[in-house]
Specification:
This protein has about 200 residues and is an alpha+beta fold. It is built from four helices and nine strands. The chain has helices at about 45-55, 75-90, 140-155, 170-185; strands spanning about 1-10, 15-20, 25-30, 35-40, 60-65, 100-110, 110-120, 125-130, 160-165.
Length: about 200
């Protein structure tokens, strides 16, 4: 078993490969993309959420996962979150010139979600998706929290996502992922006013 992160082909593109006894994952993430998602994880609803991250983050994202789905979806969901976080961390590099933080509200019919992200290098996740305990796309609701937490800690970002209200779990989850993607889009943009400066009074992130 081995974990490898391939060198970036540019400061804003990352390729991550991870092989364990449970999953084999390859991810390519381009921060300066056009919102395209390709690939599949074997978990349909996870693919649906990843497509929203790409579309609303305006990233290009390719995810290939072969996991031990004969057991359940846990390892695939968790490990894709880890690899996506590693890819984000590698793609943003030393964070010179970044906006650094972003927030977004996103509605979907009766549901409203809010996400805030800080590319701080201080991993933390505060999540309140208000899912009702039923399976969603065949996934237990705790796996959505676990995916977001795994992603945040692997990316070394501060992530807060909450659903303010809603009645349909599909709508709540989708709104939450869209809000996070829009917050990531804002945070990963380059601010030309910084002139390549690190966005921290410490001088490093």
């Amino acid at each position: 078993m081995s974990d490898t992160v391939a060198p970036s082909t540019s400061p804003r593109i990352a390729v991550v490969s991870r092989r364990t006894a449970e999953t084999a994952i390859d991810i390519t993430l381009c921060l300066d993309g056009s919102g395209k998602f390709s690939g599949q994880t074997g978990v349909g609803f996870l693919d649906h959420m990843l497509a929203h991250i790409a579309k609303h983050g305006v990233f290009d994202l390719d995810v290939r996962c072969e996991g031990d789905l004969w057991i359940d979806q846990h390892h695939s969901v968790e490990d894709v979150g880890i690899c996506l976080g590693e890819a984000l961390g590698k793609a943003i590099g030393d964070k010179a010139g970044l906006v650094r933080a972003g927030s977004a509200f996103m509605p979907l019919d009766e549901a409203l979600a809010h996400a805030v992200v800080d590319l701080s290098g201080r991993p933390y996740a505060v999540l309140d998706l208000k899912l009702l305990g039923r399976e969603l796309g065949g996934l237990p609701p705790d796996l959505f929290d676990h995916f977001l937490e795994s992603f945040a800690f692997a990316a070394k970002i501060n992530l807060h996502v909450r659903v303010l209200y809603g009645t349909n779990d599909h709508h709540k989850c989708e709104a939450a992922f869209k809000a996070m993607a829009r917050a990531l889009d804002a945070a990963t943009r380059i601010d030309p006013r910084r002139g390549g400066d690190i966005p921290s009074t410490k001088g490093t992130l």
